[in-house]
Write a structure and sequence with these properties.
The N and C termini lie far apart (112 Å). Strand 2 (89-93) and strand 3 form a beta hairpin. It contains 5 helices and 8 strands, in the order H-H-H-E-E-E-E-E-E-H-E-H-E. The chain folds into 2 domains: 2-47, no CATH class; 74-174, Nucleotidyltransferase, domain 5. It is of the alpha/beta class and 178 residues long. The protein is rod-shaped, with a radius of gyration of 42 Å. It has helices at 2-17, 30-47, 66-72, 125-135, 154-166, and strands at 77-83, 89-93, 97-101, 108-111, 114-117, 119-120, 144-148, 172-174.
Length: 178
């Protein structure tokens, strides 16, 4: 009897997997595939990081036109340098102040009511530049542009740069000499 049951079970299983023409029928098991798809979907949703793109930050710019922005741009303080053949250096700050830098300070002149030497040394240069900055109401982060002439000695440019650096001026620009 057990043998007969086994044969009947075999026939039933055989009938289930074979089509009516006798060929084996292919069945897709969709439930396990759907489970795997949902597991993958859950994994990617949990591991994804949702953040804004790095190059885009929402910002609100102040109102006004482009013409207003151009008026607000600050011109750099121009410092012209020229080396003389005898080793002295002429320094002109803007259009107003001109110094002759030598090893020893000598003669004196005036700027805006203040006593200023016409000949100074590089050690005295920071004080003189500071006086000009205060007179023009400039801050330490305002741009300063060093403009050496073609025959200017590099040592004079470097000493002037160090004098500006001692004043904690951080926005120092070098002009290209052609």
């Amino acid at each position: 009897m057990d043998e007969r049951k086994a044969q009947n079970n075999e026939k039933v299983q055989h009938r289930r997997y074979r089509s009516h023409r006798g060929r084996p029928r292919i069945q897709l098991l969709l439930v396990p595939m759907i489970d795997i798809v949902f597991l993958l979907l859950t994994f990617f949703l949990l591991t994804a990081s949702f953040r804004p793109a790095e190059a885009f930050l929402p910002a609100e710019l102040p109102g006004g036109s482009v013409a207003d922005a151009e008026l607000m741009e600050l011109e750099p303080l121009l410092i012209f340098l020229e080396s003389l053949p005898d080793g002295r250096c002429l320094i002109q700050i803007g259009d107003e102040v001109e110094f002759e830098v030598v090893d020893q300070s000598a003669a004196a002149g005036q700027l805006g009511g203040e006593q200023l030497p016409v000949q100074i040394s590089f050690e005295q240069l920071p004080r003189q530049v500071d006086l000009v900055l205060k007179q023009q109401h400039r801050a330490s982060d305002d741009p300063v542009k060093l403009v050496p002439q073609r025959q200017t000695n590099w040592d004079h440019v470097l000493k002037t740069y160090h004098a500006l650096w001692r004043l904690n001026l951080t926005n120092i620009i070098f002009a290209i000499v052609e």
